[in-house]
């Protein structure tokens, strides 16, 4: 008697073009633009992946919502984690990262490698949202400006 048919993994693959699975790269801001590269996989509302940057190797685990165009994930280096919350807009994911301890935060922007980048900087090969174009204080202002937009409805 044959066993159950294997699940069709393509049925779970995300079809929303804002959330393509594969290689993504860009930057996060922590006193300067810092490059990062990772493989990100979007399936059925779950985001998973792994990558490396100048802080070390990391794994990704989180969620995304195609109706709101929002993604939230944890970037774990093993001994500490960084929380990311952002929007899928203009061919990229952009938003705010916060150390799980709450002692530091900044902006980020990531692009899927297969779609290319728009308006890249000569320094990092990445563009940040204009409101984050300054120093750490500007990144803090950017983070504050997104608080309401990123909070789920009904949360204080």
Summarize the topology:
Blueprint: H1 9-12, E1 22-29, E2 33-43, E3 46-53, E4 56-65, E5 70-76, E6 81-89, E7 92-99, E8 105-112, H2 136-150
Antiparallel strand pairs: 1-2, 1-8, 2-3, 3-4, 4-5, 5-6, 6-7, 7-8
Region (Disordered): 1-30
Molecular structure report:
The structure is a single chain. This protein is mostly beta strands and 156 residues long. The chain has one domain (22-149): Beta Barrel (Lipocalin), CATH 2.40.128. 12% of the residues lie in helices and 44% in strands. It has helices at residues 9-12, 136-150; strands at residues 22-29, 33-43, 46-53, 56-65, 70-76, 81-89, 92-99, 105-112. An 8-stranded antiparallel barrel has the order 1-2-3-4-5-6-7-8. The longest helix is centred in the C-terminal third of the chain and has 15 residues, at 136-150. The relative contact order is 0.16.
CATH fold description = Lipocalin
Low-confidence stretches: 1-6, 120-139
What is the highest CATH level, the class? Answer: Mainly Beta
Shape: globular
In CATH terms, what is the architecture?
Beta Barrel
Largest sheet descriptor: 8 strands, antiparallel, barrel
Q: Strands across the major sheet, in which order?
A: 1-2-3-4-5-6-7-8
- Provide the helix percentage: 10-25%
Mean pLDDT across residues: 78
- As an assembly, this protein is single chain
Order of helical and strand elements: HEEEEEEEEH
What is the gyration radius calculated from CA atoms?
A: 16 Å
Pick out its properties.
eight-stranded antiparallel barrel, Lipocalin, mainly beta, 156 residues, disordered N terminus
